[in-house]
Amino acid sequence: MYMYVDVLDARPKLSEHHKILFDDKKISIPWEEGKTSHFQHLWIRDHCQCPECFHPDTKQRLLNTFSIPNHVRPESVEATETGMQISWKNGHKSFFTWEWLHLHSYNPRLERYLSPQFKLWGSEITECPPEVEYESVMETEKGVAEWTRKIYIYGFCYINGVPVNPDATKALIERIAHIQHTHYGGFWSFTSDLASKDTAYTSLPLSAHTDTTYFSSPAGLQLFHLLSHTGGTGGQTLLVDGFRAAKLLRDEDPTSYRILSNTRIPAHSSGNNGISIQPYAPFPVLNHHPVNGELFQVRWNNDDRATMDRWNDPDEVEAFYDAIRSWNEVLKRRESEYWEQLVPGKALIFDNWRVLHGRAAFDGSRTMCGAYVSRDDFMSRFMMTNSKREDVLRAL
Ligand SMILES: [Zn+2]
């Protein structure tokens, strides 16, 4: 489930033909697979896993790193059945399992990167959208595991059988994590009523966008629950898989893909009196993982885009407009758009780092409620319900 796994499916084994060696600087561990891992003494001493150096419960370092002499050196190194035992010159003993050493080998890196198993979707998802039952999520950890797994894989999930009231909806989202508060508050519930002529909560259509592009770290998940819709029709919810749209753009128009990956777009939220939220720096539409290069976040809200008055070269302006026009065209294709009429009792949750949302115009009076959960809190819940705790912590 996590990003990195050990290269070996079986337990890593020491070579039978070569021995562990160490010199003044490093320890060299020859593996059965033919590679040799080198660990500098200073590094290996700093990562001692013994309960004096590493707290077994908090998983935090207890060792004072700065007490280690620069030229620290083992007195002896011994291979046992399960791992490597080091006796240091001052008498301290360290033990590392073969699994730990193999997983954390940095010279060379031995781990293999596994791409997350995302399922990309278009309008056809309407036939079989991911869903879970309210009761199962509320009553079992297995239910939460299934729910968070579906959100991770598809970027969204329905919850059926939700009692039609704000309290039950709030309890539902809190099964993942505490609610992420913003300048709009925490859990929200409001009625859009044309009769009130309140333009703040209008009934106008909204094209596909992600929320909070003006945060340094945008809201992670968003949940919607339609509590009632009376005296009118419309208001269907629109979802677009941003990862699928990005893939299409990359295949069909790589120049635009590159521009959307590199052009930083300023954004802000300043409509509320006394508030102007801005990220610490502008971010591109398509954000890639700094280590593995994969797309991990889509930020797109054309309405919240601030004035773009910083260009390396003024000729970039036209190219940028070409790129967002091309992106907009992919997003608005019939096969990119998945429309669904939400109904009371069926809540929707989606990954705001991947899935864009919007809605059709409506008339009458609608009451919706919902909330955000931060991305880090979601990922923690997802990993800990879908993997053994030891397996998650092992990779730290
Ligand atoms: Zn120790």
UniProtKB/TrEMBL annotation:
<dbReference type="GO" id="GO:0005506">
    <property type="term" value="F:iron ion binding"/>
</dbReference>
<keyword id="KW-0479">Metal-binding</keyword>
<feature type="domain" description="Gamma-butyrobetaine hydroxylase-like N-terminal">
    <location>
        <begin position="23"/>
        <end position="102"/>
    </location>
</feature>
<dbReference type="GO" id="GO:0045329">
    <property type="term" value="P:carnitine biosynthetic process"/>
</dbReference>
<dbReference type="InterPro" id="IPR010376">
    <property type="entry name" value="GBBH-like_N"/>
</dbReference>
<dbReference type="Pfam" id="PF02668">
    <property type="entry name" value="TauD"/>
</dbReference>
<dbReference type="InterPro" id="IPR050411">
    <property type="entry name" value="AlphaKG_dependent_hydroxylases"/>
</dbReference>
<dbReference type="InterPro" id="IPR042098">
    <property type="entry name" value="TauD-like_sf"/>
</dbReference>
<comment type="pathway">
    <text>Amine and polyamine biosynthesis; carnitine biosynthesis.</text>
</comment>
<dbReference type="InterPro" id="IPR038492">
    <property type="entry name" value="GBBH-like_N_sf"/>
</dbReference>
<comment type="function">
    <text>Converts trimethyllysine (TML) into hydroxytrimethyllysine (HTML).</text>
</comment>
<dbReference type="InterPro" id="IPR012776">
    <property type="entry name" value="Trimethyllysine_dOase"/>
</dbReference>
<keyword id="KW-0560">Oxidoreductase</keyword>
<keyword id="KW-0124">Carnitine biosynthesis</keyword>
<feature type="domain" description="TauD/TfdA-like">
    <location>
        <begin position="124"/>
        <end position="372"/>
    </location>
</feature>
<dbReference type="GO" id="GO:0005739">
    <property type="term" value="C:mitochondrion"/>
</dbReference>
<dbReference type="GO" id="GO:0050353">
    <property type="term" value="F:trimethyllysine dioxygenase activity"/>
</dbReference>
<comment type="similarity">
    <text>Belongs to the gamma-BBH/TMLD family.</text>
</comment>
<keyword id="KW-0223">Dioxygenase</keyword>
<dbReference type="InterPro" id="IPR003819">
    <property type="entry name" value="TauD/TfdA-like"/>
</dbReference>
<protein>
    <recommendedName>
        <fullName>Trimethyllysine dioxygenase</fullName>
        <ecNumber>1.14.11.8</ecNumber>
    </recommendedName>
</protein>
<dbReference type="Pfam" id="PF06155">
    <property type="entry name" value="GBBH-like_N"/>
</dbReference>
<keyword id="KW-0408">Iron</keyword>
